Amino acid sequence: MMKKPVIGVMPLWDDRLESLWMLPGYLDGLRQAGALPVILPLETEEADIRQLYGLCDGLLFTGGHDVDPALYGAAPLPECGPPCRRRDALEASLFRLALEAGTPVLGICRGLQLINALLGGTLYQDLPTQRPGSVSHVMRPPYDRVIHPVALEAGGTLHRLTGQAALGVNSYHHQGIRTLAPALRADACAPDGLIEAVTCPEHPFLLAVQWHPEFSFRRDGASQAIFRAFVQSCQ
Ligand code: MN
Description:
Layout: E1 6-9, E2 12-14, E3 19-21, H1 24-32, E4 36-39, H2 46-54, E5 58-61, H3 85-101, E6 105-108, H4 110-118, E7 122-124, H5 127-130, E8 148-152, H6 157-162, E9 166-169, E10 176-179, E11 185-189, E12 195-199, E13 206-209, H7 213-216, H8 221-233
Parallel strand pairs: 1-4, 1-5, 5-6, 6-13
Antiparallel strand pairs: 2-3, 7-10, 8-9, 8-11, 11-12, 12-13
């Protein structure tokens, strides 16, 4: 039997309970695509992170806390949520290891924002106040509904994966990409011009999306295609 690729999944953190948690959709979406997902601990010892990294064939950078604005050289605005510095530290270390080695990376929501910041890009700390526009990016549950379209970059990764020129996506984010990191390319954009997906041409597989395929993969073919392409690249 062929071994399933092991995907290290960034843990979610509950400030109130001071506890790790996880949305099952991240794990289920990966499992449906043929992976063996493993929730990582919030580990800060660099040597331990390196050993954990060695267990993983790919890394999923999940949603969650706002990225610490210090990571992109900004002072926090009142609208910026509290950071989770343990997540930022763990994920920065793991991302740099994956970048060096060409290990496949999938980013979702915060994951996209973190990756952009780590590669030298900047973020809007609060879209409604800093970039008010025609598109509402914060929807109410249930989250497995289409709330805005994204236009896919012709010839880009998502265009190739889905065979479509545009996708309907969910949206649950109050932050977003302000300046794109030099190493990244926009792969999808919302009608208000906000970048909603990125790739890194220098990396074997790096895809990050601003929407939430972990909520929509049960019915949405494009979400399934994203998980499948990621997991296949980890074989
Ligand atoms: Mn959106």
